[in-house]
Amino acid sequence: MIIAALAVLGLIFGSFLNAMVSRMHAGKDWVRGRSQCDGCGHQLAAKDLVPLLSWLSLKGRCRYCGQKISWQHPAIELATAAAFILSYIFWPASLGLAGQKLLLVTWLISVIGLMALLVYDARWMTLPNRILYPTFFVAAAGRLAYILGFADNKAHSLLFWVFGVLVASGLFWLLFMVSGGRWIGYGDVRLGLVTGTLLASPWLSFLMIFIASVLGTLAALPDLIAGRKGFGSKLPFGPFLITATAIAVLFGDQIVNWYKSIFLP
Fold first, then answer.
1. Average pLDDT over residues 152-167
2. Which SS3 state, helix, strand or coil, does residue 68 take?
3. Angle of the 154-165 helix axis to the 129-149 helix axis, nearest 10
4. How confident is the model at residue 63 (pLDDT cuts 50, 70, 90)?
């Protein structure tokens, strides 16, 4: 029942953030605005907005003008639902503990903001503050509540949070300052506030950056080999940082412990 509920919630929030990023980019009211077809501008009815099912029943086309509906809509809905379900299944600590339930809820709410940032950066190569700062507020409020209410060693947990942010955001800030913004965008510096807070560990922040770098390199490699892009070409790095953060949150402790057992016995 919990998994089914998370799947439904993931589909609903995935549909919401799809509409949110499109309206926000177009400068429309993303809170009270009504959904419209991108092609004909027809206002969509409730039956057109059922997550995933509407897209399937309409065979990926607008009911009113027949134009194809972007695959982004069902893909993001499914991805958000999958993120919710996998987070619950693979949460790295016992959910029998109240503190871990708080962290999971904080993570799931943050996932909505992170997915919106992923879509926005992938499409328009920018990470808007209107999504970044609310997501950081949620992550920080949840982390602070956990430390004050449930952490055994509050000073240690607080220190790890600070160092996690310094690694996730500070390293990018240093790269930004040294390169004058040529190597990294300042949006990635601000994103580090969110990812560093969610990870709350310098080791996991280092792991997140490493995984993101590997993913970014693998994604760019085909175009580099084919000559379609050069080494100076811009690549939105936010989606890789966000994906790497999810990996580090769910599996980071296992990966770090495995590394230590091999290289630091």
1. 97
2. strand
3. 160
4. confident
Token digits of residue 88: 């619950």
Phi/psi for 68 (5° steps) reads -65, 140
Q: How many CB atoms lie within 10 A of CB 81?
A: 21
* CA-wise closest residue to 188 among 110, 108, 117: 117
Mean per-residue pLDDT over the chain, rounded: 91
Alpha-carbon gap, residue 156 to 77, rounded angstroms:
38
Residue 88, pLDDT above cutoff 80: yes
Rg over alpha carbons for the chain, rounded to the nearest Å, is 20
CA 74 remoteness from chain centre? 17
Is the per-residue pLDDT at 209 higher than 70?
yes
- Pick from 239, 246, 252: nearest CA to 202: 252
Residue identified by tokens 């996730």 is 168
CA distance 193 to 136: 7
Answer for the pair 125, 237: CB distance below 8 angstroms, yes or no: no
